[in-house]
Design a protein that fits this description.
alpha+beta, 8-stranded mixed β-sheet, 16 helices, EC 6.1.1.21
């Protein structure tokens, strides 16, 4: 029998790569917490109707890409293809609106879509996203854009381009939809098969086509900006002014409509060319009709999602993985010494130190080589003699200086030990700069 492999479109995130993921999550947590966004963790699977109603049955996500199945209770369930619908469902089910004002929420986790796997796009993929629910103020649109910009730039992405557009309200979209259908009908046979299928179901999505001929036809398509009502124009103008006030550069892209039905007014994407080819790393916008569509009162909202896989690819090009290294590497040999070593390691960890315990049982020479490779600053050595006398050797790996002390004495000097470790870290960091 062969070994069992991962399914197509899924992959293991291994320890050698996990540093990038933890780094991204820690930066996002810091920045969003400072803006008073609270983390929420909805379930990974939901009732299928949540996504059919929320995302729209005419979208490619619902029509082609969802992982849907029946459980033993004959309920139709779907692995979440995106995060917003589940957050809004949680907002309604748990009466988060009862607190009044706005709700600032963010999430992080896996999503699922049946697509052709490729670099940066998996069938199980991961997103960090946020939702600001409860205000139609253009400042909300700009706040979420500014936070995404802060996160991406803090992570090291500098070559960012912000594309924005307005998709108007429902009345604007309906007028625009009719104008698009009238424009595309004469070109129907020249459109790619997917765009032909979208012509009646979801003509706005034709503007996203990557087909060469369809893109040529799109160049002369009517612009949504020509079909906006006065209220939508005012909202979009205010968003642009606030972005300029914050010094955030932007480009108006009339073809940017986003792929989900719930978007209204502001739509945006953040694109990076740090890889040499443009890649969308963040997308979002306003969705003022979704809460009502899912059974709540009319409630405006805005949000975005950052794709983790594509972001990690960018970070790997820009910087090495943040390494996890121990403060102390503990080597021991002999039954008594090995038992005492485990106890010492645990006590030091409780004091806030990072300790790696060698469990190989090999000769001291091999253990010392592993200590050097670990990147540790110091090494604690326990042999049979030390175990019998309840002593230990503290060896500084860079200078090779070594001192003997009792195990009890170590913990009376733990504050001094931390200071010495910090000095060594500062010296090492300075020498590598």
């Amino acid at each position: 029998m062969g070994t069992i492999q991962t399914l197509p479109g899924t992959r293991d995130i291994l320890p050698e790569e996990i540093g990038y993921w933890q780094y991204v999550e820690s930066i996002a947590t810091q920045i969003l917490s400072r803006a008073m966004y609270y983390e929420i963790r909805p379930p990974i699977f939901e009732q299928t109707s949540l996504f059919e109603r929320g995302i729209g049955e005419a979208t490619d996500v619902v029509g082609k890409e969802m992982y849907t199945f029946s459980d033993r209770g004959d309920r139709s369930l779907t692995l979440r293809p995106e995060g917003t619908a589940g957050v809004v469902r949680a907002y309604l089910q748990n009466n988060l609106y009862a607190a009044g004002g706005v709700q600032r929420l963010w999430y992080c986790g896996p999503m699922f879509r049946y697509e052709r796997p490729q670099a940066g796009r998996q069938r199980q993929f991961h997103q960090i996203g946020l939702e600001l629910i409860g205000t139609a103020d253009p400042r909300a649109d700009v706040e979420v854009i500014a936070l995404a910009t802060d996160i991406l730039k803090t992570l090291g992405l500098q070559s960012l381009k912000l594309d924005i557009n307005s998709v108007g309200d429902r009345n604007d979209r309906q007028r625009y939809r009719e104008a698009l259908v009238n424009y595309f009908l004469p070109y129907k046979e020249e459109l790619d098969p997917d765009s032909q299928d979208r012509l009646q179901r979801n003509p706005l999505r034709i503007l996203d086509s990557k087909d060469k001929r369809t893109k040529e036809i799109n160049e002369n398509a009517p612009s949504i900006l020509e079909h906006l009502g006065d209220a939508s124009k005012k909202h979009f103008d205010q968003v642009q002014q606030l972005l300029s006030d914050l010094g955030i550069e932007y480009n108006i892209n009339p073809c940017l409509v986003r792929g989900l039905d719930y978007y209204t007014h502001t739509a945006f994407e953040m694109i990076s060319d740090d890889l040499g080819a443009q890649a969308t790393v963040c997308g979002g916008g306003r969705y003022d009709g979704l809460v009502e569509e899912l059974g709540g009162n009319a409630t405006p909202a805005v949000g975005w999602a950052i794709g983790m896989e594509r972001l990690i690819i960018l970070l790997k090009q820009l910087q090495s993985s943040p390494e996890m290294t121990p403060d102390i590497y503990l080597v021991s040999r002999g039954e008594a010494a090995e038992g005492q070593g485990l106890i010492l390691a645990q006590k030091l960890r409780k004091e806030g130190l990072t300790v790696e315990l060698d469990m190989s049982g090999s000769a001291f020479g091999k253990q010392f080589k592993r200590a050097d490779r670990s990147g540790a600053i110091a090494c604690i050595v326990l042999g049979e003699e030390e175990a019998e006398n309840k002593t230990m050797q503290l060896k500084w790996l860079q200078s090779k200086e070594q001192q003997a002390m009792t195990q009890a004495e170590l913990f009376t000097k733990v504050g001094e030990l931390k200071e010495q470790l910090d000095r060594h870290k500062r010296t090492m960091n300075h020498s590598t700069q």
